[in-house]
Amino acid sequence: MEIFTVETEQERQVVDLTDKVNEIIGHHPVKGEMCHLFIRHTTAALTIVPIDPKRELDLIGMIEAMVPHHLHVKASQNGHDHVATYLPADILASFVGSTLAIPVKNKKLMLGDFQRVVLLEFAGPSKREIVYICA
To answer: Lesser CB count within 10 Å: N end or C end of the chain?
Structure first.
């Protein structure tokens, strides 16, 4: 198991992790055929998306269309105002998910031609910790 940190620079951001994960796999003995990734935060997510250099994919914009950036949320009865502050980011991250399992072959992720592993930041800028296990 290894933990690596990614620093995001914007409030909403897509960060490509593919090369970093392949680098980690290349430098460590692979004990199995699956790479497991887990992000240790509730306001960011992990997913696999197609990134085609010929066209831009507004992934954050599409996801935000489902949950507006500024929801009208009342503070909880217990006085936890942070719940209202982070709720949209938490919802977006929960829609996408916090884990990935990707097959590994020849010390590389077995992704399709345009598939990339990305972190989706919904409440940045921030430092995000990702747990990596190859089992």
So the answer is: N
Query: DSSP secondary-structure letter at 74?
Result: P
At residue 129, the 3 state secondary structure works out as: strand
Rg (CA), the chain: 16
Out of 3.30.450.40, 2.60.120.460, 2.102.10.10, 3.30.70.920, the CATH code matching 2-71+80-134 is: 2.60.120.460
pLDDT above 90: residue 81: no
Q: Which of 92, 86, 83 lies closest to 119, judged by CA?
A: 92
Length of the chain: 135
Q: Is the alpha carbon torsion for 111, 116, 122, 125 positive or negative?
A: positive
Q: What is the reported pTM?
A: 0.84
